[in-house]
Amino acid sequence: MPIHVSEYPRGHAAVDAAAWRSALAAGEVMRGLWIASASDTAAEILGGAGADWIIIDTEHSFCSPDRLLAQLRVLEAAPVFTVVRVGSREPRELGTLLDLGARGLMVPMIESAEDARRIVAATRYPPDGARGVGGGFARASRWNRVPDYLTNAESTFSLLAQVESVAGLENLTAITAVDGIDAVFVGPADLAGSMGLLGRPRDPRVRSAVLGAIETVRAAGKTAGVNAFDPDDAMAYAEAGAQLLGVGADVTLLAQGATALLERVTVPGRASAGTT
Q1: Sign of the Cα pseudo-torsion (225, 179, 23, 140, in order)
Q2: CA torsion angle for 99, 103, 106, 112 (degrees, to 10)?
Q3: Residues 158-169: tens digit of each pLDDT
């Protein structure tokens, strides 16, 4: 996204949960980029690329709390909504990430309505849930400088359930019926493995299952999302009703871009990039 010198000092305000929910309710399709490198520099670069949302991965990357905090801070200056894909469904982790200031949480491997209810409870304060109360220690409340944070915390973040197994698809209708889940995000890679098609997320059987999941989520009045790093897949899923698209990741963009560049710059007598 080009930024003129006259605009640079003003920076950009990050998208908050209220604006995010309004956009989803309006039916907007959101293009998202993943950060899997745990790098705040990568976060800053992707934050200015024109994406609608950024997903910071803590499930498949080595992302310490300090690294996560650095990424959240740089993305405060970007016009995006930031979601943290958590490493587990453990309630303490979910509460800690919200205290750290995550505006969105994506929780993987939701396979039942009970799983969904547990993550909702873990992110709500009593009496509606079991989130630990530590406002004075929390960046989310600006260390108690937001006086009404505890009574309005739910309005400051968005909760996404990630469904990525056959069991999850079998229980998808019940999962979507759980209050407190803003969106259901399908993971084709893990789904392919669960279907006995490991490494084949574009297999027609996987694509058919994803399309069916999108239809089910939409029929329940919820927002559907999906990972689709191939542009043709992303467009097909968007046409089917998916609003949240994960279309690329920092590490894959770097790996593919570097290889493609070196393959174009040929040197006589030297093997092509990516060969040994």
Answers
A1: negative
A2: 70
A3: 999 999 999 999
Q: What is the pLDDT of residues 28-85, one digit of tens each?
A: 999 999 999 999 999 999 999 999 999 999 999 989 999 999 999 999 999 999 999 9
Distance CA 19, CA 32 (A): 16
Q: Which residues are catalytic?
A: 60
pTM of the complete model: 0.91
Q: How far is CA 51 from CA 17, 65, 130, 250, in A?
A: 16, 24, 34, 12
Helix, strand or coil, per DSSP, at residue 81:
strand
- Where in the chain are the domains? 8-264
d(CA 222, CA 213): 11
Closest CA to 164 of 194, 121, 140: 194
Topology at the third CATH level for domain 8-264? TIM Barrel (3.20.20)
Give me the pLDDT at residue 207, please: 97
Distances (CA, A) of 72 to 42, 81, 103, 130, 180: 12, 10, 9, 25, 23
Residue pair 245/238 in contact (Cβ under 8 Å)? The answer is: yes
pLDDT, residue 1, reads 53
The pairing of beta strand 104-107 with beta strand 158-163: parallel
CB 83 within 8 A of CB 53: yes
Provide the total of helices (H) and of strands (E) in the chain, helices listed first. Answer: 12, 8
Helices (H), 123-269: 149-152, 166-170, 172-176, 188-194, 204-219, 231-239, 250-264
CB 210 within 8 A of CB 237: yes
